[in-house]
Design goal:
heterodimer; A: 179 residues; alpha+beta; 13% strand; B: 485 residues; mainly alpha; Formate dehydrogenase/DMSO reductase fold; 15 helices; 0% strand
Chain lengths: 179, 485
């Protein structure tokens, strides 16, 4: 490692999604852990190429939905049957049927918050700064280029070997990214 | 929806023709590409993000100034209403619900197309939706804002509007949830919130595109802040796509429930003309119908003005026309079925309510509704009409006129004949009613124009994803013989 405290990682640029995906498979098979692929749009099949497991966002959404429904039912029961019972049109003070529509909406409301906030939490977003965002070619990652970044903190990282690997998988442009 | 077939030409593959693993599909299966002229991925960024960059065009100002003026009119009318009272509006015994509720149902119905496009068409894997979902979702949010104004101001004492929500107050009383009006409060506020969440989540990668293209510090800062530090990492995309799928899955039952619950405001009551079980599905179909009308009204001129014809293609317009035709026909069926049941039920009040709609003093409203909602969409059977942009634009406006009259027919005609003839009346709107309604157009268009100017109006990352260049298994995406892809 040339300058271990200053270098964030090594970045390799690719031009097509297929080339990126093949390269990602090779990097995955080489046993790297702290690395990532950056694409302007989600590339289908890339999760498998990187060896990623199914996303856990669903659990956050599920928790949100369950608390929305039960919270809604408890709220309506407490408000209309306990704290302020008043007879309306001879209807029961509390009925799960009458309470269902607002609880249905609350399930969806909190489930949606769960999905969005869960996604942000798992991605460790928002963040105001990232070493890659300072890199001059990296702005193309939202335009039409594809990048593979291997971090120096990966135990298998070694500047020469990793650069050779990225060259072997077909990248024409490989650079170091500073912290 | 498969007649929009045009030959898809493979690009010349000089010297590599033998290497192709993925062959062009047989002629019969070919479809017109979603992005025409084989535009590159980079071109898509430039074309879409370019709309919100550079000098503000003249036509934008020409639309923006009248919109702001109308919006100001709306707020002035609301202030006038607040200072005098609801007596400045037309409603009075027995028509206690007037234009406020008509406008509320109309605007919220318009919103439904946005969610249908963003959620239901996503679950159905209709990839053409990516070109139009962003603008349609923005339309949803602004339409729901316009809709939300009316129930709030029609309560009379607007400063007590917060009593609608279960917030502790010094009287120690709570809202009672046995009323569909309370269900409506939850449905509409959830709908608005979830639409904003869904829209914003879709925007995050595109705001990052805007950030990375920004030249000035302020733009870089603002887009950087709202894109939350998005880098396009595949680990992030993986969670993002899952969250997007879940939001689509949650929005689908949501959008179906919202207009169902709105319809229960009417159908849970016992008034002839309102008390029918057909209302929830019939309202949802009508909502989607009017929403697609509004999407067409907005996008048909915009694709031309913003030079986005390669992304919002004629095929997209045709497909939207077909949805309009389908939902319009469902609405037509519901009108016929309502009439049939009014007769078949043998209930004299119900029968009278419907005969009065068609032949009473408000016959003109009823027949405007029938001609705009049942007859107008039938033109969309013809490909010549669907591909003629001027025709589509005019018909799409007629659709929304018709849908406004539908709500007018349901609200006003049902109310103006009470059970006792001594309670009969004839409702007329006042100038305040009319100016408030027109004013909401100002609100809608002000927000929509600001959206055009500052936010990518097409989901850039999603459109890139549906091009062949984005498919790692397609020759244009770099697939070659040798690998297993």
């Amino acid at each position: 490692m040339a300058a271990p405290s200053k270098v964030y990682g090594i970045i390799a640029e690719f031009e097509t999604p297929a080339a990126t995906m093949h390269a990602a498979e090779k990097v995955r098979d080489s046993g790297f852990r702290k690395w990532d692929v950056f694409t302007p749009f989600p590339v289908h099949g890339m999760d498998a190429a990187m060896g990623l497991k199914n996303s856990k966002v669903g659990w956050f959404s599920f928790l949100g939905g369950v608390s929305g429904y039960t919270g809604g039912m408890l709220m309506i029961w407490w408000m209309n049957a306990v704290d302020y019972p008043i007879v309306i049109g001879g209807k029961p003070m509390f009925s799960p049927y009458g309470a269902f529509p607002p609880c249905y909406e609350l399930t969806i409301l909190l489930g949606s918050f769960g999905a969005l906030l869960g996604m942000l939490f798992l991605n460790r977003l928002p963040r105001l700064h990232h070493p890659l965002l300072k890199h001059r070619r990296f702005a193309l990652a939202t335009h039409d280029r594809f990048f593979i970044v291997i971090e120096t903190s990966d135990p298998k990282y070694s500047e020469n070997e990793t650069r050779k690997l990225l060259q072997a998988v077909g990248s024409q442009r490989i650079e170091l990214v500073e912290e | 929806m498969s007649d929009a077939v045009a030959p898809f030409e493979m690009p010349p593959q000089t010297g590599r023709k033998q290497e192709l693993v993925v062959k062009a599909p047989p002629k019969a299966l070919e479809r017109e590409p979603l992005v025409t002229h084989q535009r590159s991925i980079g071109w898509l960024s430039d074309a879409i993000a370019g709309v919100a960059e550079g000098k503000t065009p003249k036509w934008w100002w020409m639309a923006f100034v009248p919109s702001v003026t109308l919006m100001t009119t709306c707020f002035t009318m609301i202030l006038y209403l607040m200072s005098i009272g609801v007596g400045v509006w037309g409603p009075g015994h027995p028509v206690m619900w007037g234009w406020a509720i008509v406008n509320f149902v109309w605007w919220i119905g318009i919103g439904h197309a946005g969610t249908l496009i963003s959620a239901i068409l996503f679950l159905l894997r209709q990839r053409w939706r990516t070109s139009i979902n962003r603008a349609a979702e923005a339309m949803t949010i602004f339409a729901v804002m316009c809709a939300g104004i009316f129930p709030l101001i029609h309560v009379g004492r607007i400063w007590f509007g917060w009593w609608l929500f279960p917030i502790p107050n010094m009287e120690g009383i709570w809202p009672q949830f046995r009323s569909p009006l309370m269900w409506d409060v939850f449905a509409v506020s959830t709908y608005f919130t979830v639409s904003v969440l869904f829209w914003y989540m879709g925007l995050i990668p595109d705001l990052a595109v805007m950030r990375d293209r920004s030249k000035t510090f302020i733009r870089k800062f603002a887009y950087g802040l709202f894109s939350l530090g998005w880098t396009g990492s595949n680990r992030h995309w993986s969670n993002y796509e899952k969250a997007y799928l879940i939001l689509a899955g949650l929005s689908t039952p949501l959008v179906l429930s919202v207009h169902s619950i709105v319809s229960m405001d009417f159908s849970v009551s016992q008034l002839p003309g309102w008390h029918t079980t057909i209302f929830p599905p019939y309202f949802v179909a009508g909502a989607v119908f009017s929403g697609f009308g509004m999407v067409l009204t907005l996008l048909v001129p915009l694709r031309r003005l913003l030079r986005l014809e390669d992304i919002i293609t004629v095929r997209h317009v045709e497909l939207m026309c077909k949805v309009t035709l389908a939902t319009g026909s469902i609405v037509g069926y519901a009108y016929a079925m309502e009439f049939f049941i009014a007769w078949y039920s043998g209930n004299p009040y119900e029968r009278y309510a419907f005969i009065n709609r068609a032949t009473g003093h408000y016959w003109w409203a009823y027949w405007t509704m029938i001609s705009c909602n049942v007859l107008v969409p039938q033109f969309f059977w013809f490909k010549k009409v669907r591909t003629n942009m001027i025709f589509v634009f005019v018909l799409s406006i007629l659709v929304n006129i018709g849908m406004w009259f539908e709500r007018f027919v349901i609200v006003v005609i049902s109310l103006h004949r009470e059970f006792l003839p001594s309670n009969w009346s004839y409702f007329r709107p006042t100038w305040v009613d009319i100016l408030t309604y027109l004013g909401t157009f100002g609100l809608f268009f002000t927000f929509f124009l600001l959206f055009l100017r500052f936010v990518p109006i097409i989901a850039i990352a999603e459109v890139k994803g549906v091009t062949p260049q984005a498919d790692p298994h397609h020759p244009l995406g770099g697939a070659k013989e040798g690998g297993h892809h």
